[in-house]
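Handout, section 4.2: multi-component inputs.
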Amino acid sequence: MSFVLTPPAQVVVPVSDGRSFPVHRVYCVGRNYVEHAKEMGHTGREPPFFFLKPADAVLVVPEGATGEMAYPSQTANLHHEVELVVAIGRGGRDIPVAEASQHVWGYAIGLDMTRRDLQNDMKKQGRPWCIGKAFEQSAPIGPVHPIARTGRLDKGAITLHVDGQLRQKGDLSELIWSVDEIIAHLSSAWLLQPGDLIFSGTPAGVGAVQRGELMECAIDGLGKLRVAVR
Ligand code: MN
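Output:
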């Protein structure tokens, strides 16, 4: 085949056993922890809603390394959101909740980095959030851990520290919509594909991070994800 441009490289996330997970799409769930929904000014259980980041927004952080994220343009309010990321191994449409876990290949720790000022401007105007959510390096992610090794992750601490200070703290058991329910909802709206990543929402405590600061995320069973802002 004769390409007129060099085709973009496949985005891949390392697997904890040395193999690689090819990324198809990056889905994100909004407001999926009660305390975070409250801090964003919402109450009650609303149907899950989704947005996307481009696959090349992924910033790969290898096991044990500290990732480096460039402070993005046009914002003065870059927020951290630590999230459990679900890596899809088998696709499907209209997946029943009871079968959803069979579609999970593994899990990772991710950051849904957000230009909150731009997101809020867009919200106010009723416009799409893309500029607030879907920018380069807006999805730092650590290695994917196979579910075959971790088992199902439906409880366990999820935390984020900035320069050693605890900012976000929650438990996976506090998800408003469970991972299985998210997969069921998502696959009713889109054809879920192998290689899809799902950021499952963030616990309370989101806030701004500055140049020179270090974010350290942890989820029980998945180790740590460290990302410095430059
Ligand atoms: Mn988020």
